[in-house]
Design goal:
CATH class: Alpha Beta
Number of domains: 1
Strand content: 15-25%
Shape: globular
CATH architecture: 3-Layer(aba) Sandwich
Bound molecules: cytidine-5'-diphosphate
Structural class: alpha/beta
Strand order of the largest sheet: 2-6-1-7-8
Number of strands: 8
CATH topology: Rossmann fold
Helix content: 40-55%
């Protein structure tokens, strides 16, 4: 079967990465988490003191963009790719609520997006790739053969993220997470550059009432239909 490009976009915390990772494993594709890249840039800015609750020195970040190298390496134990920032594994650090609370501001900056989109296109050049994010079907790979737009109710999404963080041992509050999910959607959808939009040729998946197994099957069926017809 010919290799295709699969773009999965949608709202915050709706399980895009879980479904994309599962499908990639099942069909032997490479999975790329574009959100992890924006999270890694955010972590860098926080660590370097360029970004705090009250201030963001974007000029300082722009000067240092060349010092940010992001890569993905397969973790043999989990069987999933881990995110590396300048050769340090930051997979857990980029998933904290602190990073979530700043990431959408960082991802709205033009020079950050330009740098990330360029890397994402290079990573996807060979096809046989599944990438998830906000602008994959609209900007990064507008010619992707398969595009899915995922959504679910904000309450269900917040609960899923709460369960995920709690399972990792992070102490968190469901209301704070709900607020973050809603706020990120607002910033992501209203920003001037590459706002979160459903591509006209994307197929919508509302997974509010679907189990992980059900959504996996839905995605696999769609992939087979598209790849076989292509
Ligand atoms: O928490 P969730 O898995 O929903 O988000 P993520 O995919 O890790 O992305 C984190 C943030 O990065 C998003 O809220 C967006 O602000 C930004 N992002 C983006 O602007 N463009 C992308 N292609 C991917 C993520």
């Amino acid at each position: 079967m010919k290799k295709i490009t699969i773009a999965i976009d949608g709202h915050s915390s709706c399980g895009k990465s879980t479904m994309a990772k599962d499908l990639a494993r099942e069909i032997g594709y490479v999975y790329i988490d574009s959100g992890a890249m924006y999270r890694a840039v955010t972590l860098f800015a926080l660590k370097e003191g360029m970004l705090t609750k009250d201030a963001f020195d974007t000029e300082a970040l722009q000067k240092r963009m060349g010092d940010i190298r992001i890569s993905f390496r397969l973790n043999a134990e989990t069987g999933k790719p881990d995110t590396y920032l300048n050769d340090t594994c930051v997979e857990n650090q980029i998933r904290t609520l602190e990073v979530s609370q700043h990431v959408s501001r960082v991802a709205a900056i033009g020079f950050v997006r330009e740098a990330m989109v360029e890397q994402q296109r290079q990573m996807g050049e060979a096809k046989g790739v599944i990438m998830d994010g906000r602008d994959i079907g609209t900007v990064v790979f507008p010619n992707a053969e398969m595009k899915v737009f995922v959504t679910a109710s904000a309450e269900v999404r917040a609960k899923r993220r709460y369960d995920e963080l709690t399972a990792k041992g992070e102490t968190c509050n469901l209301d704070d997470i709900l607020q973050n999910v809603v706020e990120r959607d607002r910033i992501d959808s209203t920003r001037a550059i590459s706002p979160l939009r459903q591509a006209p040729d994307a197929i919508v998946l509302d997974n509010t009432n679907l189990t992980i197994a059900e959504q996996k099957q839905w995605l696999l069926d769609l992939y087979r239909r598209i790849a076989e017809a292509d």
